[in-house]
Each structure stands twice: as C-alpha cells, then as structure tokens.
Design goal:
This protein has helices at about 35-45, 50-75, 150-155, 200-205, 225-230, 265-275, 295, 320-335, 350-370, 385-395, 400-420, 420-445, 465-475, 480-485, 515-530; strands spanning about 15, 85, 100-105, 115-120, 140, 160-165, 185, 190-195, 215-220, 235, 255-260, 305-310, 340-345, 445-450, 490-500, 500-510. About 35% of the residues lie in helices and about 15% in strands. The radius of gyration is 23 Å and the shape is globular. It has about 550 residues and is an alpha/beta fold. Pfam families: Amidase. One of its GO terms (molecular function) is amidase activity. This is Amidase.
C-alpha cells in the first residue's frame, strides 16, 4: 500500500569523491578572491578599504596552505570503502514503505545475537551502503566506516539486512516526511495512519516481523513514538550510554541511539551489545560498568515503587482512551507486585517549551548551518558527509522538508532577535527540569505516563497544507521530548489496544539505571501475557 512518491534517480557518490579532482587524491581549497572577501565583509557589516581588502586577501591566500596540508594528511589516514552488495527494494517487497535499501552483511555466525536479522535506521552508517537520512541533502552518499553500534552488532553475530527509512533528517515524529522511500511509512494496524517517527521504518519492520531487531535513534521521542503507535518495545537509553559515533547528529545534547524490538528481552539483549564507551563520543563517561541487561530481567520487579506522573495525563490533545488504557496498565504493575502511586512533577509541563528552544536554535546551528556535525566537538567527525551535505544545502535549499524550513525560519528569527540568549536560558533551566525528575525518582524507582497523548494519527494527504504537515510531526512529543533534554532512560511498551490501535506506556528511570526500567517493562509484559501484533490484537507473543 505504498504511495506514489519515489526518489529521483541518482548516481551514487562514495565518501571522498568530489566533482573536481587532481593527481594526489585530494582537492586544494579554493583561494579567496577580492570579490568573495568583499561579500563576506559586507555580510558581517565590516567596512574595509580596497587596499586593506587586498592585504587581507594575500594573508588569507597564504593561510589556505594549512587547509591543503590537513586534507593531504587526512587522505593518508582514511581507509578504503568496503564493497558490500546492496539493492533498492521494489514496491512488491516494500508494502509499508519501510525499507530504504536491502543488504546482507554478516561478520561472524556466533555471539549473543547470532543470526538475528537487524535493520539499521538510515541515519546511522553502514560502510559501503547508501545513507540518505531521509533527505535529499544526503542522496547518493555512501559512508566510509561502520558506526560503532553497527560494528558491535556485527561482532555479536547479527546480520544487517538493510537500512530502514527514517524521516527527513530525523526532524519529524510523524512518518510522512522521508524522501528515501516510495511514500509515507504506513502503519500496519491501519495503513491510513502514521507509523510514528522519526524511526518510522525501524518500527514497522519490527512490528511486521520482517526483521528481528532494529536500531533506532531518538532526539525528541523517535524511538518511543513508533513503539507506542505500533505496539512494540522501544528503549531510549540514558544519554551517553550508547555511543552515537557514526550516526548523523541533530543536536549533541539530544542525540540517542537504542533498540527497537518485539519483546523487552530482545531489547535488553540488543542494549547489552551496543552499550558502553567507544572512546570516540564525548557524550559518554570514559568508563562505565558493563551490564548484562537481559540477565538482570530475572530479578523481577516486585516491591519496586512506581510514580504515576500526574502531568503526563490530560494534555490539551490527550485522548481519553489513551489515558484510560495507561491507567489500566498501572493496575497490572500493581498486580505484578509493584507499589504505584500518583506523583506530581510540575516542571514536566514546562519541558515542551525548553525542548522547542533547544531544538530550533540548536538544530539550526548544528544540523543546518553546521552541516550536521557543527564545530567544537571532540568526537569523531565525518568530513565527507559534511561536504556532501553542505554542497547540497547551498545548491538546493528548497529540498529541505517543512520541518527543517520551520527550524530555519523560527530558529534564525529567534537567534537574530535574542542572539542566543533564549537557548542559553533553556540550557540553564534544563538543570531545574532534571532536578524535578530526580527528586521524584528519589522516592520512586521509575516514573510512568502515556508515551504519546494520542494513538496513531491519520497521514496527511499529499496536498495537505504546511500547518497540517507540521502538526502531524510535532503534536505527539509532549511526554517523550523532556527525557531527551534530561537524558533519563525511557522505554515505551504496549499498554494495550484501544479502538483497534496500540497505546504505549512509557517507563522512565534514573540515569544509567536502564536495567531497572527494563525490569519493570519485562514484569509488565509477563503480567499481561505478552504484547499483541498487527492484525491479531488478541494474540499475545
């Protein structure tokens, strides 16, 4: 049931391939002309005399030798792109629009995930396989190296069977913005509805059983929203627990990678494999205790204390069926031996405003003007990706989705008006938000609330207006986005089915106590007898 939109034809461009080449394997940086410097000076409001401008040109031209040397040195260090077979699926093999490319990559046939078929969200690098991040800005790009998490999955015996469609630069909670699939990613519970985003393809491939596991990413809820709307498990780890190295950033303080799975046990097994420092991602502590999350599920959750967050219910756009289903799920937690009580976290209501400021201004600086990686980062960069993206951004800015255009317009206006002070305020207020959750978690082992205020929403029609397109991508973030700001672990599990559509319950824990979150999730799954599947809502797995 795919739509009619298809990607434009393109010639794959491998990392490091340039439109201009010279003998020696690298391209010298363009030398500045007087007219180019004059335009730059005008943009900064600098008044420089023609004579001084020529002197600056001479000095800048001499300085460019350093740029040439850096490129030459870098060329000596990088490895060749591996040859890995891949193909684009046809419509008959992509009924839900969830696949970007298919492949079959396996490094070993033993390990904790031996033989498990895994899809990789297309914001994360699989070397030698195209990565589009759902956007025209990366169309034709093929990365040079595997992301750390991909290397770890392959070392654990997993088979990478393809890249899953994700939303355009991961900037939508809907499933209607990607440019890498045949149309919107459709929900197998109801094809007229969204699958949730931005990890839309990962969620659908797991929900339909086309893969065993999927790697997903989360900046505002992008692991948990598809999990909620598709009736599966999605775990956003503690910020920094899983290395983000090799994935396309949106805003470093919000970036997370984590597992999407049918069951809590499978999610815990995958988290065990991908967690831990890699020495390349400054988000991570330099050392951390290695945890077997699946083994710890056996401890159960009886006696744990659950805080039911009052402010997580009853939003202006909340559906009564969602709130009622999650409150009924809380009763199942009590039946499993946990103590569940209402708790108020007043700051939760302020979190969406903080998220908007951080996402708009931070996303503008990082994802748009910083060509995804930005500056001042001590971790691993992908210079070829930055160059590819930057060239596309300048030559075809209209290819940005409505979500990105909104980020550019609102973010630039806010920055030009406030000069970044609101971003700074939001970052300082983040500490108060974090402290509010920490205070609640001082009294409770986990917090729970609906993952999203509503069930899967109808997909926008092809001729939908800008306001509808934007709303379908942001209206579900109220409960998920706060924990991308604070970094607390948060797992969405199916609370039940209401009106034929899944409802998600989100379980939130103390930072780096992901094991406790998963224990509660597993105890709930056991208590309700497993989770339903699309087309068989009464059947438990």
């Amino acid at each position: 049931m795919p739509g009619s939109r298809r990607p434009r034809d393109y010639r794959p461009i491998r990392a490091g391939q340039e439109s201009r080449t010279r003998e020696g394997g690298h391209v010298p940086i363009d030398r500045p002309t007087a007219s180019a410097l004059e335009r730059i000076a005008a943009g900064y409001g600098l008044e420089i005399s023609p004579a001084d401008l020529e002197n600056f040109r001479t000095a800048a031209e001499d300085s460019m030798a350093a740029w040439d040397l850096v490129e030459s040195l870098y060329a000596e260090q990088v490895s060749a792109i591996p040859e890995r077979a891949w193909s684009r699926p046809d419509d008959s093999d992509n009924a839900w629009g969830a696949w970007y490319v298919r492949t079959e990559v396996q490094d070993c046939d033993d390990g904790p995930l031996a033989g498990r078929r895994v899809a990789i969200k297309d914001n994360t690098s699989v070397a030698g396989v195209p990565m589009m991040d759902g956007s025209r800005m990366l169309e034709g790009f093929i990365p040079r190296e595997d992301a750390t998490v991909v290397s770890r999955l392959l070392a654990a015996g997993a088979v990478v069977v393809g890249k899953s469609v994700c939303e355009d630069l991961c900037m939508s909670g809907g499933s209607h913005t990607s440019k890498s699939g045949p149309g919107p990613v459709r929900n197998p519970w109801d094809p007229s509805r969204a699958a949730g985003g931005s990890s839309s393809g990962s969620g659908v491939l797991v929900a339909t059983g086309e893969v065993d596991l999927a790697l997903s990413g989360d900046q505002g809820g992008s692991i948990r929203i598809p999990a909620s709307w598709l009736g599966i498990v999605g775990h956003k780890p503690t910020w920094g627990l899983v290395p983000y190295t090799g994935a396309v950033p949106v805003e470093p303080s919000l970036d997370h990678l984590g597992p999407t799975a049918r069951t809590v046990t499978e999610a815990a097994q995958m988290l065990t494999v991908i967690a831990g420092p890699d020495g390349l991602d400054p988000r991570q502590p330099s050392s951390m205790e290695m945890v077997d999350y699946a083994a710890l599920l056996g401890r159960g959750a009886a006696g744990l204390r659950v805080g039911v967050v009052t402010e997580g219910f009853g939003h202006a756009n909340s559906e009564g069926e969602v709130d009622d289903t999650v409150r009924a799920a809380v009763e199942s937690l009590r039946s499993a031996g946990m103590v569940a009580e209402e708790v108020s976290v007043a700051w939760h209501a302020n979190a969406p405003a903080l998220f908007s400021v951080i996402a708009f201004e931070g996303g503008l600086a990082q994802l748009v003007e910083g060509n995804t990686f930005g500056f001042g980062w001590k971790g691993r960069y992908d210079p070829e990706l930055m160059a590819h993206y930057g060239a596309r951004r300048l030559t075809d800015p209209s290819a940005f989705s409505e979500s990105l255009q909104m980020t550019m317009l609102a973010g630039r206006h806010a920055h030009d008006t406030g000069h970044g002070r609101h971003y700074a305020m939001a970052r300082n207020l983040e500490r108060h938000l974090t402290a509010a959750y920490d205070e609640a978690l001082r009294h409770y082992d986990v917090l729970v609330m609906p993952t999203t205020p509503m069930r899967a929403t109808p997909l926008p029609e092809p001729d939908a207006g800008v306001l509808e397109v934007l709303a379908r991508g942001t209206e579900m973030l109220t409960n998920t986005a706060p924990f991308d700001i604070t970094g607390h672990p948060a797992c969405s599990v199916p609370a039940g089915v209401a009106g034929g559509l899944p409802v998600g319950m989100m379980i939130v824990g103390k930072r780096f106590e992901d094991a406790t979150v998963l224990r509660v999730a597993h105890a709930f799954e056991t208590e309700v007898g497993g989770f339903p599947r699309p087309g068989r809502p009464e059947v438990h797995s």
